[in-house]
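Summary of Year 1 activities. Much of the first year was spent building the evaluation harness for sequence design. The harness presents a backbone, in tokenized form, and records the residue chosen at every position. We chose the following record to illustrate the format because it has been used consistently in internal testing since the harness was completed.
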């Protein structure tokens, strides 16, 4: 049966996704590189709490896909199990069991047999906290007291230095929190973490060399023309970015005099997505309808100069820690 809906990521794309995630790229940046929606990227990451799954490896002693393809060709030629076994250098009993468990001579298909084998060899190992209730309750208690996983791990190491069963690494605690499929620690405990993140970043994660948190040459709101304040002259707008569920985002534009509102859908909250969408929307307006735009200090407007250069709209930013106007 053919697949319906949005196609998923290939194995190569998933490998690249994790590499970019470890390098500190945003969901939108990864999505653009893979030509996928940021929500699709978020779905892959959230499934394992931002922690890359361990790569699966096959034992060289088991049948490989190439072996199964050779078996399929041999069956098509009417060869005996013993003859096929000699071609792939396996015992005849191995070939016999392989064919019988996958539909027999008439129905055997190499690809289907290989996928079935991959599914059946999964042997999920119970994590430490699921097997040790006393340790699990103690970790949950300390997390509720807003201890960090590193503090909990260090305290257990000192408190139970003679009992290895009562010791756990901070990475294991993070995995038990962020990988909810384990069903060990309640998701509510994540809110007690100091980082306030819902996914784990790799140790090699860095933002070095990335232009984040920088709004270059921002013009203060105090330098706006006086006519903006009394709302008597139209053409002065205020904007903001709204984030919804499923990593969806919307920019709002409000005209100060008439209170007219425009909504602009953006693909992500990174500056390239937001600035690009606003620039296209402003360029579609009649000349002179937007003269100034006021925004908060959100880093989605780091490349605000591109808007001014393309539309001649002056952009002003709220002062840090100042009340909204």
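For this record, the design step produced the sequence shown next.
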């Amino acid at each position: 049966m053919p697949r319906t809906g949005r196609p998923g990521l290939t194995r190569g794309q998933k490998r690249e996704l994790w590499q970019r995630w470890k390098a500190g790229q945003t969901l939108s940046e990864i999505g653009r590189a893979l030509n996928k929606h940021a929500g699709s990227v978020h779905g892959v990451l959230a499934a394992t709490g931002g922690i890359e799954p361990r790569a699966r490896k096959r034992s060289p002693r088991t049948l490989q896909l190439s072996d199964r393809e050779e078996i399929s060709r041999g069956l098509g030629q009417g060869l005996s199990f013993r003859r096929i076994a000699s071609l792939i250098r396996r015992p005849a009993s191995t070939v016999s069991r392989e064919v019988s468990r996958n539909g027999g001579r008439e129905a055997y298909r190499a690809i289907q047999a290989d996928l079935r084998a991959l599914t059946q060899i999964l042997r999920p190992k119970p994590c430490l906290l699921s097997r040790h209730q006393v340790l699990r309750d103690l970790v949950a208690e300390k997390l509720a007291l807003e201890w960090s996983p590193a503090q909990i791990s260090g305290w257990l190491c000192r408190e139970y230095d003679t009992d290895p069963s009562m010791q756990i690494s901070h990475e294991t605690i993070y995995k038990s929190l962020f990988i909810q499929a384990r069903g060990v620690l309640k998701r509510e405990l994540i809110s007690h973490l100091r980082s306030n993140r819902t996914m784990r970043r790799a140790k090699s994660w860095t933002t070095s060399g990335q232009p984040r948190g920088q709004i270059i040459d921002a013009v203060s709101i105090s330098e706006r023309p006086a006519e903006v304040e009394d709302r008597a002259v139209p053409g002065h707008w205020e904007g903001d970015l709204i984030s919804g569920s499923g990593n969806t985002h919307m920019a709002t534009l409000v005209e100060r005099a008439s209170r007219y509102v425009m909504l602009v859908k953006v693909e992500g909250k990174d500056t390239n997505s937001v600035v690009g969408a606003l620039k296209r929307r402003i360029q579609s307006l009649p000349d002179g309808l937007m003269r100034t735009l006021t925004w908060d200090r959100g880093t989605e407007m780091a490349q605000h100069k591109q808007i001014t250069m393309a539309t001649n709209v002056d952009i002003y930013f709220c002062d840090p820690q100042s009340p909204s106007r």
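Residues 1-6 have pLDDT under 50 and may be disordered. Quantitative recovery figures across the full test set are reported in Table 2.
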